User: Fold this.
Amino acid sequence: MAEILEIWGGRPLYGTVEIPSAKNSVLPLLAASVLCREKVCLKKVPHLSDVEVCLALMRSLGMDVRYGDTGVVIQPTANVEDASLQTELMQKMRASVLFLAPVLARCGYVEASLPGGCRLGKRPIDIHLDGLEHMGANVRWHGERLCLRAPRGLMGTKYTLRYPSVGATETLLLASVCAKGDTVLHGAACEPEIVDLANFLNQCGGKITGAGTETISVQGVSRLSGGAYTPIPDRIVGATWACAAAAAGGCVTLEGAQPEMFAPVLDALEQAGCRIWRRKNQVKIERRKELVGIGERKTAVYPGFPTDAAPLLAAALLGASGESCIRDTIFTNRFACADGFLAMGANVHRIGSDLRILPGGPLHGTTVAAQDLRGGAALVIAALAANGKTKIEDSFYIQRGYADLPQQLRRLGVKIQVKKT
Ligand code: EPU
Assistant:
């Protein structure tokens, strides 16, 4: 059943939100647990549709997985029963691609279709496949189906990624952790979620060094155990609440947030006129006066300004008194939410991968549609600042990355309704 969010904007936000485990850590950790020979418990996992899709993929492999209030429990499986990943599940999200390497490593074979995911522009998987080929996998296409074989197991290698792709770095960590021999990855992604994956694999007996730098070394081990693990807090959820407070005004505390993980977003909001208090596991953000434009900002790989936060920051700056221009250098279609911003009366111009934000009149509520996860969250942020009621259609995109958003907003004083259609 489709859901529409109805948000009455124009009220400042006051209160505290808990930052859950990072979606983009949890998904690779679930893929990693396919390799584990003992029970795995992932804690503080938020209820997200992307997590449900991963669990459905794992069940289709014959794994016993449970998703309770405290997290996800995965029982070890003696044999992965079916190395054919269902097309319908693969196409529901990009992170489904992360199951290729662990299933290949366990079965010597995996068959799947291309992954789906937000339509942010072209999202090929050539680096994932090229890296796996370097490790000895045989890659073949049968129509739309992709077949990977490594009957004698994956082999350690030296490999340079042509671009520091987050997903491809994760695939190659998952492929190399139990491969025969040593692997050195050059040009690896440095995002905190990569470090989290390496920490989890090492806790299970993996031998990975250098995660968080451009060169990662992996000594293949024969077996991974399991154990309990709490993933890192979600830096993009942290950025979302910070931008929401900036847009609506008020004062919001982000409990459990690690400010250094989304420092460029907090710096931009501070430059725009917010007051920010950074503590070890907490951030407080306050906005009392009108925001000002921040000039130009470009997204970049970590530790640069995160692409996922580009539409969120844009939404916060729609009501600013000066000009801002945000350029996404990672994806070509990051600002699909600009259609919704325009419908709400914002003065924005989308030129290629740039979004130019000029001072305009006050935003007003209207009907808009989410077109992707972060763009959908950006429409929520804009709705919080708009006068009157905004209806956000296709809110299933938002549920991929934000658990129980209406309830969280209500706790901050927002009037919001969820209509089922
Ligand atoms: N790319 C290639 N070939 C590849 C892989 C990537 O050309 O084989 C290109 C992509 O087309 C893109 C760029 O490299 O232009 C970056 O892609 P990357 O692989 O780094 O991203 P991803 O692994 O697909 C993850 C997050 C995204 C986040 C990006 C960038 C997950 C599940 N997804 O995607 O998060 O935007 O890294 O930081 O970890 C989200 O949470 O809403 C989201 C989209």
